[in-house]
Amino acid sequence: MATELEKIGEKERTITIARNIYNYSTNYGSTNRNALSDGDEKGKGEVNGQVGSLTDINTRVDNVGRNSYDENNGYGVTNINALSDGDEKGKGEFGSQVGSLTDINIRKDNMGRNYYNENNGYGLNNKNALSDGDEKGKGEFNNQVGSLTDINVRKDNMGRNSYDENNGYGITNVNALSNGDEKGKGELNGQVGSSVDINTRISNLTKNEKYGPNKKSYPDFVI
Question: Is this structure's pTM higher than 0.85?
């Protein structure tokens, strides 16, 4: 026996199905005119090469009407409006030229401001690209690189540096060794550090009454 809930459900299902004009005998599908694009608002399925509702069709017709290109007049390499022939429409390459009229004019203007071109390239054969003592070139020339400013700054910096390729800062340079001055810290005769380092170390060892050279070593206990 059906429960009260089942009775209510069956009643509601009957009401809902009654509202639906489609059922087992009249399905919504490719054989139902309401599913096909036949000029009304209901169907959108393809029929006779047409798809969409009436609104879809009218909108498409309106959009296509505004477009000067179609299957018989495609926008491509054979259409003058697609080629760079001196107007604003086409930008495709034509006679070794690309871009609209505006593009072409801007390019000409930019090229006119540029001192360098295909016949006067900026490269290793152009004096303006080489470090020959002016501000323009920075490329290596006679073992020199940089503009005039770069060269002068480098000379100034090198002039302040007491070390160079002939007087390198290393194990053979007295200023790099711990010989009792403040400059060198490299090991020399078993000693490392500048004068301050050495004096500080001696002072610290003196303060340590228990451990140190000639004293007990840490740890001084047996585990």
Answer: no
